[in-house]
Amino acid sequence: MKVYVVRHGQIPNNALKRHTNPYEDLTELGIKQAKDLRDKIKNINFDVIFVSPYLRARHTAQILNVNQINMIIDDRLKERDCGNLSGQPLEEKEERIDYWYYFSEKNHGTSENIKPFFERVYNFLDELKTKDFQNVLVVGHSGISKAFSSYFDGLGDGKFLDRGLKNCEMKVYEL
């Protein structure tokens, strides 16, 4: 099975370089990014689309879903909860590296710990293995793409800051 992972289009807090929240919708640029990606993938016959329940991911998935196939909202595809960091400026690079460092013991406000976050995504992928699909589209977030990277490519040095997808970027994995 081929799994196509897509990060949602740009949202206001992406443009402002701030931590996000679940309620943000796409900017005009985010809508354009999704439409541009739609034009690139419109000839792929997806069996199903799995999507994060967050508005920005659902909106992106709706734009990409040119063939009006079944879309399944899955809570395991929510972005890592940044807790009380929501709306705050992204930290300096060193702090962001630690935020996305798998082996870090540091707490980052009330944000979700990276290990249970990755486990949640791994659980989704382990279940997906049991399904009989050929082409699956997953529309999620940068953090979800980092967890996918870990699942398929291993933990490596445990640093995931630069292993996430950009807005409306796509990566394909074989499951």
Task: Explain how this protein is built.
The longest helix has 15 residues, at 114-128. A five-stranded mixed sheet has the order 3-2-4-1-5. The chain has helices at 12-15, 28-41, 55-64, 93-99, 114-128, 142-153, and strands spanning 2-7, 48-51, 71-73, 135-140, 170-174. The chain contains six helices and five strands. Strand 2, helix 3 and strand 3 (71-73) form a beta-alpha-beta unit. It has a single domain (2-174), classed as 3-Layer(aba) Sandwich (Rossmann fold), CATH 3.40.50.
Keywords:
175 residues; Rossmann fold; 5-stranded mixed sheet; 6 helices
Secondary structure layout:
Elements: E1 2-7, H1 12-15, H2 28-41, E2 48-51, H3 55-64, E3 71-73, H4 93-99, H5 114-128, E4 135-140, H6 142-153, E5 170-174
Parallel strand pairs: 1-4, 2-3, 2-4
Antiparallel strand pairs: 1-5
Helix pairs in contact: 2-3, 5-6
Brief sketch in words of this structure:
Helices cover 35% and strands 14% of the residues. The protein has helices spanning 12-15, 28-41, 55-64, 93-99, 114-128, 142-153; strands at 2-7, 48-51, 71-73, 135-140, 170-174. Helix 5 crosses helix 6 (142-153).
